[in-house]
Amino acid sequence: MSEPADSPDTDRRRRTIDVVNASLARRYASERRFRLLGRLAVLLGLAFVAVLFLSIVANGYSGFQQTYIRLQIAFDPAILDPDGKRDPAAIRGADYGALVKQALRAEFPAVSGRSELRELYRLASAGAEYRLMDLVAHQPSLIGTSKELWLLASDEVDLVRKGQIDRSLPESERPVNDRVIGWLDALEQRGAVDTRFNWSFFTNGDSREPELAGIGGAIAGSFYTLLVCLALSFPIGVAAAVYLEEFAAKSRWTDLIEVNINNLAAVPSIVFGLLGLAVLINFLGLPRSAPVVGGLVLTLMTLPTIIIAGRAALKSVPPSIREAALGVGASRMQTVFHHVLPLAMPGMLTGTIIGMARALGESAPLLMIGMVAFIVDVPKGPFEPSTVLPVQIYLWADSPERAFVAKTAAATIVLLGFLITMNALAVFLRKRFERRW
Fold it and tell me: Which residue from 250, 320, 363, 366 could staple onto 371, CB 3.0 to 4.6 Å apart?
């Protein structure tokens, strides 16, 4: 028998349904607000990242270009080879700066005052002398001839050419006076000024002159440092992960080791630098500023990441794989190395690449072991003094020279390119070789 429409139970149920419907409406509205706030947070984060990248690119794209000046160089035998013996040592020791000065005076014969001549000579970079020296050393037959060459311009000329020095400012507020700008305009009218891709930025080492500075030495130092780090951290990390996950018995000691590995993954990187300074350099006497020491320090820093990633990859392999291998008579060692480890290797490689990417971007531990030194020559091996890309960026960012601003941003673009490539490779390996169980 049904209840009357106006019974107390019916009214109570109606009120409950109304309360539930009202609360549902509030909860749905709250959920929509939360989703909206989440989208706004994501968009705000992407906007900040976009602004960061755009600012770096806007400041750094000009660092990949360099200004050159065309000059008619007369290879005067009286300057280059006064004895006429074509002695290579004498040729390399000749005053090639005098050839550049003669060519500039020939372009502007009206310039005569000492101060004006000094300003005129600063149109060309100091690197123009080394370019001529290398050219004559490889082609001694140039002595006694005249040749038109494109030589590197100074950093001031480069800044004016790229519009990074405002010509509209009063002369007292500009690092370049009207006379130098007039000479540059005259050269441009003759077609003797050009801006080209700066290949030397990727091949040269560091320099006090911004137009000569490059990241070649830093790239080589980073390569040797990561090579040492990879050669040590990958086999040690994989071996430690395999032992802890597959062979080590659960005990108080293994629990202590696992806790310490997880804690080391969160230790600030500068602590590893202090450890390398105290043990590797001061106690063991390893060479300072060498990639071998940097690689050892970064090995200590990346090992916890590789071990944790390796253990996670081993855990992802189904127990049925182990049981099937053991069931057909495989030993514990054969089960692990012939069946489990090959299936877990893609995950281990992904963790290793992520660890290497983190090591590539580190500067604090390497500053502690002296890789902040001013290195001009590109290192030829892991035992020669060198620097790395993040430290090179730090050095240029601290330089008062205005032309180093573009160099700093350009080096940052290169570093970000390497990091994005390494992370993309990790994602590719995970997608390509990952198995769904």
Answer: 366
